[in-house]
Amino acid sequence: MNTNPIAVFDSGLGGLSVVRHLRRLLPNEAVVYFGDTARVPYGTKSRQTVVRFALEDARFLLQFEPKLIVVACNTASALALHELEQALPVPVLGVVEPGARAAARLAEGGAVVVLGTEATSASGSYPAALHALVPDLEVVSQACPLFVPLVEEGRGCDDPIVQLVADTYLTPLRERGVRVAVLGCTHYPLLRAAIERSLGPDVHIVDSGRETSLAIQQLLAKHAGLCRTGRPGSMRCYVSDNPDRFRQVGSRFLNEDVDQVELVAPERYATPLQLATDIC
Amino acid sequence: MNTNPIAVFDSGLGGLSVVRHLRRLLPNEAVVYFGDTARVPYGTKSRQTVVRFALEDARFLLQFEPKLIVVACNTASALALHELEQALPVPVLGVVEPGARAAARLAEGGAVVVLGTEATSASGSYPAALHALVPDLEVVSQACPLFVPLVEEGRGCDDPIVQLVADTYLTPLRERGVRVAVLGCTHYPLLRAAIERSLGPDVHIVDSGRETSLAIQQLLAKHAGLCRTGRPGSMRCYVSDNPDRFRQVGSRFLNEDVDQVELVAPERYATPLQLATDIC
Fold it and tell me: Which residues contact residue A276 at a Cβ distance below 8 angstroms, ignoring those fewer than 6 apart?
């Protein structure tokens, strides 16, 4: 048994939609979460900057001696997973690989469309992961930059702006024979019904966050790393800005109250070289 | 005559819409611009974080020995102007005061609506500046969080999504007897026609960026600080991330090509205490 926490980081609060599945599936596990709300979003930024931020976020979490670090942010998973694996002394799991596995399984000869941020779409990480599994799979990348600000503003699937935006991005895909759509961003599960209406009834939806929580369970079970105390696992959140907003908006992603949120001063996360010496 | 440059900073590329007016009005002036594209946007972040970022941005610009620092970002002007004035050894000009002056002049007994980011609206800076000029003026703050991502995605006034969003935010204001609308964010001038359609034909539009360039001209003329070389002033841009995206999207804001753009490493701007010792 391993009672050390699972550490999760994200560019902001979106990663709580991954933690939501994790808490349901593995209720005994302690979770420590870092949301880089001072520098959110990552999806419009360069690879170099996303790699730097991701390394800083992960190194902050090392102080909690996690048994595993989960990169809940699709953009960071797509752009920085290799660098994180190289730099960190614990296993690292991103959301791209589990999402791609589920999509490949469901495609059955049809096309897969990956919905994501600008940076995730430009990275080609999902197509690469999908083609490693099914070399001749047809994969379409569709950036949906407005989905994140729509969710952050509190708009849901019944909002006419949301439906118009979803239709604008997605109805042209109806002609492509799409069988599977991957929700390749932590915010998109909150717009799932609108996305389904735009794509039509015959498309399987894959939620990378949900698939990742299943992959975490498998990984921990395989290496005897599960926590079986029988008690509800604790959850602590750390953010680089605005804990009140995190608490308020975050509960919609987590589907429970976000209680313990602590503001982290910049010198505790934004100095990677020093932290690497001190902690690693 | 003073040939030192005018320094301008913004959370990203939006401040180029201010520089556009500045270059037209004062074509001999040299301009140095810093866009904090690694940490953009500021409009959803806390006062504490915006103040820290603004101080770092401004201190980076001090190395160019500017005769004036312009805070082109409405959010930073609304939240951090006082701290900037205290900390910097050169005059500092924000966009809130000039925008408020123009709005107060045009109101003539009607209401003023200030359109801005979440943070600008929550700060109450525009209402405070307006009430200092006209104590009994009716002022309405309207946050328009989707306008920035719409512009960043390249959507313009003919886009049906833009018009639906503008109508959703602004048509309820038609009943309020609004006489003046302040474009209290650098991105909003690019959506001006859609905003005008939503508000109706009887509303004066104030572009804070344009008013600020007029205020700069007055300030420099008064203190004999104008540059009268007769030659076109140079323009250099520095960004904390993604110079290619800045060049590409920025030209829409500047209305001319963005040529000289240099990427700045984080240790050159994100360590305020060291910089304060070195430069200030």
Answer: A59, A87
Q: Inter-chain contact A150–B150, Cβ cutoff 8 Å?
A: no
Rounded to an integer, what distance in angstroms lies between the CA atom of residue B59 and that of residue B54?
A: 8
Q: Which of A38, A164, A241 sits opposite B161 (nearest CB)?
A: A164
Q: Is B53 helix (H, G, I), strand (E, B) or coil?
A: helix
pLDDT (0 to 100) of residue B271 = 62
Residues A210-245 have pLDDT tens digits of 999 999 999 999 987 999 899 999 999 999 999 999
Regarding whether B165 and B85 lie in a shared domain, the answer is no
**Tokens 């401040």 identify what position?**
B15
Residues A61-113 have pLDDT tens digits of: 999 999 999 999 999 999 999 999 999 999 999 999 999 999 999 999 899 99
Q: What's chain A's length in residues?
A: 280
Nearest to B164 among A152, A160, A240 (CB): A160
Model ipTM? 0.92
In a domain, A157, yes or no: yes
Closest by Cα among A261, A50, A74 to A186: A74
Contacts of A153 in chain B (CB under 8 A): 145-146
Q: Which domain holds residue B186?
A: 97-208
Q: Which residues contact B181 (CB under 8 A, 6 or more apart)?
A: B112, B113, B114, B115, B195, B199, B203, B204, B205, B206
Instruction: Please indicate, yes or no, whether residues A86 and A119 belong to a single structural domain of this protein.
Output: no
The answer to whether position B149 is within a domain reads yes
- Residue B1 lies inside a defined structural domain of this protein: no
Residue in the block written with tokens 């006419």? A160
Which of 6-65 (A) contact B at CB < 8 A? Answer: 37-40, 44-46, 48-49, 52
Instruction: Beginning with the edge strand found earlier in the chain, give each strand of the sheet holding B68-71 in spatial order.
Output: B92-94, B68-71, B6-10, B31-35, B235-239, B261-263
Q: Is the dihedral of CA B29, B277, B96, A12 positive or negative?
A: positive
What does the DSSP 8-state code read for residue B90?
S
pLDDT at A1: 87
Using the Cβ of A245 and the Cβ atoms of chain B, whether some distance falls under 8 Å is answered with yes
pLDDT tier at A271, thresholds 50, 70, 90? low
Q: Tokens 């205490």 label which residue?
A: B273
Q: How confident is the model at residue B6 (pLDDT cuts 50, 70, 90)?
A: very high
Q: A219 and A89: one domain?
A: yes
